[in-house]
Write a structure and sequence with these properties.
The protein has 5 helices and 6 strands. With 204 residues, it is α/β, with parallel strands linked by helices. The chain has one domain: Glutaredoxin (3-Layer(aba) Sandwich). A 6-stranded mixed sheet has the order 1-4-3-2-5-6, with helices on both faces. Helix 2 links the parallel strand 2 and strand 3. The chain starts with a helix and ends in a 24-residue tail after the last helix.
Length: 204
């Protein structure tokens, strides 16, 4: 009788434990999908202080350089003329450079206005840091300046330092490839890991 009573108690407890387990699992927050090269680039949840608003999911057909920087960052200031040069060089071919700072508009806007034509590309602020986290954290990046390249299909294809010479090489290749090919003939662009050369390109 004692064993039978114990069996009955266990039989009654198991569904309750399973129910409790299911409830706890329901309370857990879903883990965000890990961002990888070749994935659709996260949209930019930012406020623009210079230039036109950018929505990557909507504005397909262009190549983007998304760079994270700050007004207090010395190395970031050295990359500004380089990014301006790239924007001016490839603007007509479909390049859009977006510099994103996690600072506030009252801090960023005067800095940008002071730069004038020396910072001649789209600049935005990410006060919530949602966009910064969406891009930087999956790749373990904690320092700035840091850049990401998004192709005409809205896919993230490269990440690295904005002064890396290969970034310009890649951007030029993406723009030429897509402007000369028809949509039906267009090849899938190579997805490149940080620091890789053209010879290291691998298809997604």
């Amino acid at each position: 009788m004692r064993n039978r009573s114990r069996s009955i108690r266990v039989a009654l407890l198991v569904p309750l434990l399973l129910l409790g387990s299911a409830w706890c699992m329901g309370e857990q927050k879903a883990q965000p999908k890990r961002l990888e090269l070749g994935d659709p680039a996260p949209d930019l949840q930012v406020s623009v202080v210079k230039g036109d608003p950018v929505q990557l999911a909507r504005d397909r057909g262009k190549v983007y350089i998304v760079e994270f920087w700050a007004t207090w960052c010395g190395p970031c200031k050295y990359s500004i003329p380089h990014l301006t040069k790239l924007q001016e060089k490839y603007r007509d071919k479909g390049l859009v450079v977006v510099g994103i700072s996690a600072e506030t508009p009252p801090v960023v806007k005067p800095f940008v206005e002071k730069q004038g034509k020396g910072m001649n590309y789209t600049v935005a602020v990410d006060e919530s840091r949602k966009t910064s986290r969406a891009y930087m954290e999956p790749f373990g990046v904690t320092g700035i300046p840091w850049a990401f390249v998004v192709d005409r299909d809205g896919l993230l294809v490269w990440t690295g330092h904005p002064m890396d010479p290969f970034m310009e090489e890649l951007v030029g290749a993406l723009l030429e490839e897509n402007s000369s090919d028809s949509p039906a003939e267009k090849d899938t662009p190579a997805v490149l890991a940080p620091g890789k050369s053209a010879g290291d390109a691998k298809a997604p």
